Amino acid sequence: GENVEQHPSTLSVQEGDSAVIKCTYSDSASNYFPWYKQELGKRPQLIIDIRSNVGEKKDQRIAVTLNKTAKHFSLHITETQPEDSAVYFCAAPRQSGGSYIPTFGRGTSLIVHP
Amino acid sequence: DAGVIQSPRHEVTEMGQEVTLRCKPISGHNSLFWYRQTMMRGLELLIYFNNNVPIDDSGMPEDRFSAKMPNASFSTLKIQPSEPRDSAVYFCASSLDGQGGPNYGYTFGSGTRLTVV
B65-85 pLDDT, tens per residue? Predict the structure, then answer.
């Protein structure tokens, strides 16, 4: 089955700096890689995703890169702001019974200091 | 669309009592997932339904946990009897597999915070 490793577990940056969170996966058949942001006391929400036919995707201050050969993908946040402080989860799907089950990383707690 | 709806938002119960958590997936979604989130173990998948059929329940911790999906718009997760170590936030999520690729539109509910005292 799929195994997703996420690093670092915590990340502390100053406002305006960039933040990078990395994930590796084990199943070479995985072809969809979403990232979720979970603010304190709230549900995880999808912020960006990438499919295996592209190497990079951007949405304003966030971007995701994918290296299928090395089986890793990363979330990049530029010009960080205090409201970016949250726990971020990566995920990769594993197939089960013809369907897909997201396998989540353990999460990265991002703290942006004003 | 109102999104994935879970109830109750908070539940406090005494050890040994039965607890039932409820979930209404997004209309049209064909996959439903139950997760448990704790600081120690992160997001754990408990059970997964596809077209109302349980596909993978390998994450259900023990026989005290059971889940049902009697129709496409409703699912329950039951704990009987409850124990203090069951205290966690339980999330339901739904998606539409097939169209748009895996886990298309994957969305979490707001969760149920369960406290067993």
Answer: 999 999 999 999 999 999 999
pLDDT in tens, B28-59: 998 999 999 998 888 999 999 989 999 889 89
Q: Give A80: exposed, middle or buried? Use CB within 10 Å, 0-12, 13-18, 19+.
A: buried
Cβ–Cβ contact A29 with B under 8 A: no
The answer to whether the beta carbons of residues B42 and B32 sit under 8 Å apart is: no
Chain A nearest CA to B21, separation (Å): 16
Residue whose pair of structure tokens reads 């739904």 in the numeric block: B94
Residues of A in contact with B108 (CB under 8 A): 36, 43-45
In angstroms, the Cα distances linking B57 to A10, A31, A79 are: 31, 24, 42
Nearest to A86 by CA among A57, A66, A58, A62: A62
- Ranges under pLDDT 50 in chain A: none
Please give the C-alpha separations between residue A83 and each of A40, A56, A110, A112, A113, in angstroms, as whole numbers. 11, 24, 10, 8, 10
Residues in chain A: 114
Chain B residue numbers with beta carbons less than 8 Å from the beta carbon of A33 are none
